[in-house]
Amino acid sequence: MEQKKLVFSFEEGDRNNKKLLGGKGANLCAMTQIGLPVPPGFVISTEACLSHLAQKRKGLQPSLIKEIKMAMADLEKKTGKGFGNPKNPLLVSVRSGSAISMPGMMDTILNLGLNEETVDGLIKLTKNERFVYDAYRRLIQLFGSIGLGVKDEEFDAIFEKIKKKNKAADDSSLGAGALKETCNQFLKLIKDNTKKPLPQDPYVQMEIAIEAVFRSWMGKRAIDYRREFHITPEMADGTAVNICTMVFGNMGDNCATGVAFTRDPGTGENRLFGEYMINAQGEDVVAGIRTPKPISKLRKDMPGIYRELEELRHTLEKDNREVQDFEFTIEKGKLYCLQTRNGKMNASAFIKTSIDMVNEGLLTEEEAILRIQPDMLTQLLHPRLDPKAKVEVLAQGLPASPGAASGKIVFDADKAENQAKLGEKVVLVREETKPEDIHGFFAAQGILTSRGGKTSHAAVVARSMGKPCVSGCDAIKINNLAKEAMISGEPLREGDVITIDGSTGNIYKGIVPTIEPEFVEDLLVLLEWADDIGELQVMANADTPEGVAKARTYGAMGIGLCRTERMFNQPERLPIVREMILAESPEERQKSLDQLIPFQREDFKEIFRVMDGLPVTIRLLDPPIHEFLPSDEELVNEINHLKDLRETVEGMTELPDTLKLLAPEFLEKYKATLETITQGLEELKNKHLAETLISSKETMLQKVKSLSETNPMLGHRGVRLGITYPEIYSMQIRAILEASAEHVKEGGHIIPEIMVPQVCTLEELEWVHRYVTTIHKNVEMKYRIKVPYKFGTMVEVVRACMRAGRLAELAEFMSFGTNDLTQATFSFSREDAENKFLPLYNEVGILQHNPFEVLDIKGVGRLMMIAIEWARKTRPDMKVGICGEQGGHPEAIRFCHHINLSYVSCSPPRVPIARLAAAHAKLTEKEYVLF
Ligand code: PEP
Ligand code: MG
Q1: Which of 230, 484, 523, 873 is most buried, judging by how many CB atoms fall within 10 Å of its CB?
Q2: Is residue 818 within 6 Å of ligand 1 at its C-beta?
């Protein structure tokens, strides 16, 4: 049987086969094949790595060794040098390189081929003893640590001592003698540690080095990196090994080494960007031992080479059709290119270069769109921490709403509001938040909670406002009464300044500088291209006129979810909502609803005005109504406090008698003042204010207790509430239809979509539909115009998926509420899972992702597919969307495109990301693999 070829020279390797040759290897082949100055070399394939790792025996397979030796003979021919030949020694580098770049994760050994004999030979040849010992000490350290497992720090310690002894500030000031001494001490270190000298046979060196690079693929660093960045075996399996002739940038002042980008990776500007060092080796640039010079200075230092580099950058870009990050070395006035790869840049540079490269004819619009990962745009849409800031993390919670914010700690929403009015920047810190805290959200720069997950009230509200939020930070213990908190054991008081980073969940003490977001013109152009390509409509979840206006600026094509309960969250509305809940009879409740309807109608009108001509989906009240009341714990505390106050007042009225007994002289001295106070207190007592307040709080407490549920998320909420309290839904339906009628009368165009939450059965839908038809008739009569509308349902319980065909008889549209549907599918509580067991599940790999964040395609997605299939059997043109948090994530968007959803809806700041992701989904639909 013919042996599989495992070794490929740079001339013969297939540049397109990165899986076989690794990214670095394939690029070296590509550069060689288009005639760029790459030092000769060859690639040992990833297949060789995998079969080596699979074998039990030690050492490389004989067939592989044979191929390597043939390739080395070829290299000797090309360079005119001999491997291990003291007269003209060939030195090579051994570098790892897998299909996906894993910077710094695997190993590299330089100057292989040096031994006692070739060192002497090279000195004779170069007449440069310093250079040769410098090269030798680098080999010994790299080979000793990577190949033989001697600790790197031990080499470093020796080197530091020698530098100290020689009073050398850095490596370059050491002379040949000191470097020779370094080599000798390094060699001794190896012998002491391994009980053997450094192998002198260069082929033995090479075999050990290759084995070490193969092994590094399964090193802890590399495994962790692959797990962190979700690099699967389909993407990269095994590392290739690149053997390349050494060229030296440290042979004198006509030598240099450097790294460069074909465009500025910070701004995207189209100019050569990089750094170089005269008389140095590549690793010196990386190690930061000496300060490199900006590449513009090379124009003066080596004008000819600078021109060559300019040419090289154009050739590299044209060939790769991507910004390149490349390494070069200048050996005795000759330029070599040692490596090239796609440049990593920040989001704004990516966007600028995309637009420029399309204008330059280098890329098509589609290619320009595909080179930007949608999630990257996050960088541009929120203020973020200055990466240059040196800071220590105090604690970590869940990254619930991206962006960074600094401010003084406040523990309640009223205080947040008052402080903000005084111009203070505050961060609202709560155990968890409730609708009544909403004014605190408006006032605060950011929100931090010790409880709740990424779909908790705090998280969802903050996201909809585009405010940074860290939720579920267990390390915080809040003492509301004392107005202080312990964060990771550090006591912090109200007024102390903290910074939260909602993109990472990190919390810092003090102010950490931030960088403001930029919504640049280039991004707008790019997103317009994306909209032309994408088929999925991108809607926003927004519930207030301000939120909707913001969504529009992000390019939302409509509102996919308006959570109407959020409209009650304003200081002047909440007391009316409470009255409505506390009402004893439907008539009494109606009175409160009559007060609420103008607010809702006006908000809807404003929303319709902003979204004129676009779809607006309005969901009827969803959460259990007790969420609008204070918790029983809070009420009990308040009642006790009021009772204490009452007793204090009573005690104060007896003060003159007490003084008479204990200190008559005081009574005499303050008689007049005391009389005024006791009179005032008597009056206060007679008004029975405390009693009234206590009694109203006690009534509220009773109500809270009667409404309390063991499992509110699975309890009296959504359509169940709408059926038991028909007045509430009727008020909302009327507000929607009247706002719509008024908007139409004013010349606007709107077809509101009334959506019913938590539906399980067609009968529930029918029930609400009856309210709608009656009110609709009424409104049309009142306004004397046609008022179009659509009626639809959320699909967020498992039964709704199973009965989607029946629901579609009445529902004209459907929206998957994947927050609840995920909860229902997994039977994981939305409120508890994310800060209890999910992190461990993710860490140990039981679940790859948090399903409340990344759509669980295999489970929840499967249910969605079934539901769509059945719903469209009943109603083939059924409009179907998704409005759970997952709907704004690129992977979910790819899936939603694949299963023919009509739209995705997400929080406003994710809209640009979703627009780009919708275009990606269309452009990559052929490669999509389900499950
Ligand atoms: C959902 O369940 O996905 C949804 C959007 O509704 P909410 O998060 O308001 O329950
Ligand atoms: Mg829901």
Answers
A1: 523
A2: yes
Q: Which residue has the higher pLDDT, 524 or 287?
A: 524
pLDDT at 168: 85
Q: Atom 6, ligand 1: which residue's CA is nearest?
A: 817
Closest alpha carbon to 890 in 538, 427, 652: 538
* Residue of 863 and 108 predicted with greater confidence: 863
Residue 87 backbone phi and psi in degrees, to 5: -70, -40
Q: How sure is the predictor about 718, in pLDDT bands with cuts at 50, 70 and 90? A: very high
The answer to whether residues 233 and 250 touch, using CB atoms and an 8 Å cutoff, is no
Name the residue type at position 496.
D
What is the CB neighbour count within 10 angstroms for residue 720? 16
Say which of 562, 883, 896, 906 is annotated catalytic. 883
* pLDDT of 288 above 60: no
Q: Which residues contact 733 (CB under 8 A, 6 or more apart)?
A: 620, 754, 771, 772, 775, 776
897 included as an active-site residue: no
Phi, psi of 589 (to 5 degrees): -65, -40
- Give me the helices (H) in 838-889, please: 838-844, 862-874
Residue 830 pLDDT grade (very low, low, confident, very high; cuts 50, 70, 90): confident
Amino acid code (one letter) for 474 = D
Dist. CA 583–CA 725, nearest whole Å: 11
Of 52, 457, 776, 897, the active-site residue reads 457
Q: How many C-beta atoms lie closer than 10 Å to residue 308's C-beta? A: 17
Q: Tell me the C-alpha distance between 924 and 739, whole Å.
A: 42
- Listed residue (184, 179, 243, 206) closest to 13, CA to CA: 243
Residue 124: which region, alpha, beta or left (left: phi > 0; alpha: psi -120 to 50)?
Answer: alpha
Spatial CA neighbour of 146 closest among 220, 57, 218, 210: 210
Rounded to 5 degrees, φ, ψ at 259 are -125, 145
105: pLDDT strictly greater than 70: no
Partnered with residue 464 across adjacent β-strands are: none
**Has 883 been annotated as catalytic?**
yes
| Contact between 490 and 420 (Cβ < 8 Å) | no
Mean of pLDDT values over 309-316: 97
Q: Which atom of ligand 1 is nearest to the CA of 885?
A: 3
CA distances from 733 to 558, 575, 687, 792 (A): 20, 21, 42, 13
Ligand 1 atom nearest to 821, measured from its CA:
2
* Ligand 1 atom closest to the CA of 796, numbered from 1: 2
**Are the beta carbons of 391 and 513 closer than 8 angstroms?**
no
Comparing 72-86, 159-173, 417-431, 899-913, which segment has the lowest mean pLDDT?
159-173
- Distance CA(259)–CA(268), nearest Å, equals 17
The mean predicted confidence, pLDDT, of the chain is 92
Dist. CA 440–CA 421, nearest whole Å: 11
Write the pLDDT tens digit of every residue in 363-396.
999 999 999 999 989 878 878 888 888 888 999 9
Tell me: pLDDT of 286 over 60: no
373, 919 Cβ separation under 8 angstroms? no
Best residue among 621, 883, 889 to mutate for probing ligand 1, ranked by most atoms within 8 Å of CB: 883
Å from CA of 571 to ligand 2 middle: 25
Q: Answer for the pair 676, 605: CB distance below 8 angstroms, yes or no.
A: no
Say if residues 13 and 21 touch (Cβ distance below 8 Å).
yes
* pLDDT tier at 790, thresholds 50, 70, 90: very high
d(CA 3, CA 692) in angstroms, rounded, equals 94
Question: Ligand 1 pocket test: which of 620, 622, 627 has the largest number of ligand atoms within 8 Å of its C-beta?
Answer: 622
* Ligand minimally distant from the alpha carbon of residue 454: 1
Query: Which residue type is seen at 428?
Result: L
CA distance linking residue 254 with residue 335, whole number of Å? 11
Q: Residue 712 contacts by C-beta under 8 Å, 6 or more apart in sequence?
A: 624, 626, 627
